[in-house]
Specification:
Length: 181
C-alpha cells in the first residue's frame, strides 16, 4: 500500500507529528510519501492508496491566509504562509476520483482548547468525505503546550500508534473492497 501524507506546519509541531505518523504507517508495511503542503503534488497527479493529512488548528478550523499571516507575526517563517492544507484539499478533484480510497486526518492544537467541537482535523475529514474518501479513523488531535509548541510529552508516541492504527484500518478497508470486486 502506498500512502500520501500531506501536512501543514507553521511552528514545527505538526511536522513532528507527521513524521511520527509516517513511522507508524511504515511500521505496518505502508510505503509513505511525506510532503509539506507547499511541495505536495496535486492529489489528482499523485499515485496513492491511502491519504493522510494534518494541519494546525487555526480559529477552530484549517488555516486561512489571514490566520497564517497572524502566525508569521508570531514568529513563523514567512514562506509557510504561502499556502495551506485548505487550499491543497481543493486539488482533490471530483468525488468519483477518490473511488472510496481510505483517508484520515490529524491536527495539532493547544492544550487550553483541547476539547474543540471543530478543529482542523474535523474540517479536513469533512472535506475528504465530501470528495468521496472513506475515513478509516476519527480525526486525531495532538496537543501542544502553546501556539509555538512544544508538543506535550507522549504525543509523538501517540502519533506513531495512531499511524499504525490508520495503516491497519486502511489495509482492512482495501482488502474488503478488493474481495467484493
Amino acid at each position: 500500500m502506498r500512502a500520501l501524507l500531506v501536512y501543514e506546519s507553521m511552528f514545527g509541531s505538526t511536522s513532528e507529528v507527521a513524521r511520527a505518523v509516517r513511522e507508524g504507517l511504515t511500521a505496518e508495511g505502508v510505503d509513505v510519501a511525506l510532503h509539506e503542503v507547499r511541495s505536495a503534488p496535486a492529489a489528482a497527479d499523485a499515485d496513492f492508496d491511502l491519504l493522510v493529512v494534518g494541519a494546525p488548528t487555526h480559529a477552530f478550523s484549517l488555516s486561512r491566509p489571514t490566520t497564517r499571516r497572524d502566525a508569521v507575526r508570531q514568529g513563523a517563517d514567512e514562506d509557510r504562509a504561502e499556502t495551506g492544507l485548505r487550499e491543497w484539499l481543493r486539488t482533490l478533484g471530483p468525488k468519483d476520483a477518490a473511488h472510496h480510497r481510505p483517508a484520515a486526518a490529524f491536527d495539532t492544537r493547544v492544550t487550553k482548547v483541547r476539547n474543540l467541537p471543530k478543529a482542523a482535523s474535523t474540517r479536513a475529514s469533512h472535506l475528504l468525505s465530501r470528495h468521496g474518501y472513506q475515513l478509516v479513523s476519527r480525526p486525531a488531535p495532538f496537543l501542544v503546550d502553546d501556539v509555538k509548541g512544544p508538543l506535550l510529552d507522549g504525543e509523538l508516541d501517540r502519533a506513531r500508534e495512531w499511524g499504525r492504527e490508520v495503516a491497519r484500518a486502511a489495509l482492512h478497508a482495501t482488502s474488503g473492497s478488493s474481495a467484493a470486486s
